[in-house]
## 1
Amino acid sequence: AVTAIDPDAAYQAPSMRELLGVQVWAFQAFSVTASLLGAIGLVLAFSGTYAVVAFLLAQRTREFGIRMAIGATVRQIVAGMMGETMRTASIGLGSGVVITFALARAFGGVIPIIPAFTLRTYSVGLLVVLAATATAALLPSLRVGRIDPSSALRAE
């Protein structure tokens, strides 16, 4: 229609394939950005958990020395630290899932781009965070086995 009116007009109509390509590119860019932000968040959560558990272990060195001197095994001490860490992580993850479910239900009907709450997606995310938390807690906890009970008791 533009060519019929003015054959010299500088107008070019994009094809449907080009229009869809731009939209697909935008969704892919947002998806990559969200994935990258999620990975950064997971690394920060991992490093934060690692640092907190390492700090708690350093603060409780004397306690672990006493426990080992009276017969506690490294396995028992590591299991205790893992239990404490996973209990705390479970409280945080449970709260997060409840809040996420509530927000997804509240905004799912209002904003059409928000996907429906699917159990599989959130379960995979939950398992990834739990695995990262368990690994972050296990690494410093395994150092407890190298504590010499007599030197731990002498330390202040």
Note: The longest helix spans residues 16-59.
## 2
Amino acid sequence: MSAMDGPSFDFAAPGRIVFGAGRSAELPRILPEFGVRPLVVTGSNPARHAGLLEALDNPPVATVSGEPTLSSVREAVGAARAADADVIVGLGGGAVLDTAKAVAVLAASGGDPLDHLEVVGRGLPLPAIVLPWIGVPTTAGTGSEMTMNAVVASPEHGVKASIRGRSLLAKVALVDPLLTLDCPPAVSASSGLDALTQCLEAFVTSKANPITDGFCREGLRRAAAGLRRVYSAGSDVAARTDMALASALSGLALANAKLGAVHGFAGPLGGMIDAPHGAICAALLPATTRINVRALSERAVGAALGRYSEAAAIITGHADVTGLVAWLEETNDLLGIPGLRDLGLAEDRIDEAVAKAGAASSMKGNPIILTDHELTEILRAALD
């Protein structure tokens, strides 16, 4: 085998990763390395983080309620400009972190989200110079502190799309499992299933590489160990640590190996129905896995079928993809994940969702090109 036959890939990650129980206490020491006028982007209840905000001398705060939208991002950018912020801190779940990324770009450039938004915007490349930002997740799911895209909803277009580029990578990803201890069970369930989905999709995509493979294997193992436990016993620090690691590893993997059909659907569906991203992914995952495996078997395409078997062995102890699908379905039941119908998808909008998913960037990472019939079959199976 020649040198040209070996692996060839790029790998992007935050400038620094700080992980461990209690390490969010280091934020006041880390922050001045990057700026002296911080804006903190956080959730709708900043009092939840009163101690940490007080340790930062109570900086200006921009709050995020629900998923990021064009209007909420513009509002947060306005807050950053009003504060003359020179560093952004994202302190919250995936929606907060994605907003913080967008603010870091737009507050520095003076632009608008639609300048850089894929699919429905102009999709312009990001400027090389943006405000530094620090990601401090308080949920374990999206791994957004590790990624180079920010997902923003455009209600007028009925779709979610990404602002994407290397300049969105955090200067520091500060992951403290203790910050997730007060996550409600439903949030722990939907966010945790998002992390599991991301590890599985990044593992079977054709863009996987030896580095992301290691992250996915460990992430799947951690998710299998911790997911059900954080739902039933939220104060279990070991389980919270497992899921914080699964989330972080999934973010590193997806940023470099991309995703698949679950997230190909999740973006458009997130713009069509008012439902949590993780819950949408969880509802789609069993059927997508089953139909991907069937299509791979029927068409004898690539190596992804073996990857699914390996993932099954990591999660269930047996290299049986049928057992993996059963485990996913059982986990959704145990964690109270509703079907897409209960999440707001009407049956007469399935064709619309399939058409929109076809244009989603994540769909390009799926290990096999699915037909419209197969995509429709996934949505119908995920309805209930």
Note: The longest strand covers residues 38-43.
## 3
Amino acid sequence: GFDCISFVEELSPYIRAIHIHDNDGTVDTHRPIKPGSWVIEVLRRSRFADLPFIVEAKFDNVTELCQHVNWLKNEIKRK
């Protein structure tokens, strides 16, 4: 019954940066977020526009990280 969006909204006055990654809900696996993730909805909110976003996911190489960052930037801009 945990509502991620409500939790972030409640804590939003105290958030100063956002670490971006996904997990399976039981273990913090630091997977990259995927299309349709609830995290993207949060990152698009204007109250977070000036905050630093830190990609904290694991990648096999720097190229994959760069591709993910570029994809993420484009997703955040879309509305």
Note: The beta strands are 18-20, 53-55.
